[in-house]
């Protein structure tokens, strides 16, 4: 049997602030309803900025314009052994961008099926309910944003490579 190749899950997230409040989504997770930034997985053929624009639109029905990279975060979640298989884990590599939205959802656009609603919360309101966060990265990304962490969009380069010769 060929061993599995390990690969991290690459995700993107959007930090959107308006008048001291942050755009969040309330979503269904295996642990119940949780709060998260608009976020999701990088898909084949996308750049990271294309992915964060797409994910924000899918989860909030709002067009997102990335302005800067806030940070890159790596998290490993361990999973205990179960009757279905041995103990294992999953690693996520998250690229978080900040930017702006048009402010109003696109009329008639449905949210992703796991998204219950969008909410706007202050950092203090969010800090007061850590048990509702999808992961500790929700607050970490807000704190890094508030601390002024910004990297230019071209900090991460995308290079397309044609077929090998």
From TrEMBL:
Q: Which UniProt keywords apply?
A: Hydrolase, Magnesium
GO terms, molecular function: nucleoside diphosphate phosphatase activity; ribonucleoside triphosphate phosphatase activity; thiamine diphosphate phosphatase activity
InterPro entries assigned? NUDIX_hydrolase-like_dom_sf, NUDIX_hydrolase_dom, NudJ
Cofactor requirements of the protein: Mg(2+)
Question: In what residue span(s) does the Nudix hydrolase domain sit?
Answer: 5-143
Enzyme Commission number(s): 3.6.1.-
Which EC class, in a word?
hydrolase
Q: Which domain of life is it from?
A: Bacteria
Q: Name the protein family.
A: Belongs to the Nudix hydrolase family. NudJ subfamily.
* Cross-referenced PANTHER family: NUDIX HYDROLASE 23 (PTHR43222), PHOSPHATASE NUDJ (PTHR43222:SF11)
Subunit structure as annotated in this protein's UniProt entry = Monomer.
Q: What is this protein's name?
A: Phosphatase NudJ
Organism name: Paraburkholderia piptadeniae
């Amino acid at each position: 049997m060929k061993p599995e190749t390990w690969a991290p899950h690459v995700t993107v997230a959007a930090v959107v602030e308006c008048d001291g409040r942050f755009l969040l989504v309330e979503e269904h997770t295996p642990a119940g309803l949780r709060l998260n930034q608009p976020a999701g997985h990088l898909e084949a053929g996308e750049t990271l900025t294309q992915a964060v624009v797409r994910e924000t639109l899918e989860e909030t029905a709002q067009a997102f314009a990335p302005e800067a990279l806030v940070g890159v975060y790596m998290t490993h979640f361990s999973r205990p052994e179960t009757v279905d298989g041995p103990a294992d884990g999953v690693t996520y590599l998250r690229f978080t961008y900040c930017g702006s939205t048009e402010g109003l959802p696109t009329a008639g656009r449905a949210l992703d099926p796991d998204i219950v609603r969008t909410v706007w919360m202050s950092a203090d309101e969010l800090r007061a309910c850590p048990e509702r966060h999808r992961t500790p990265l929700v607050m970490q990304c807000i704190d890094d944003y508030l601390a002024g962490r910004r990297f230019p969009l071209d900090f991460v380069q995308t290079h397309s490579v044609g077929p090998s010769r």
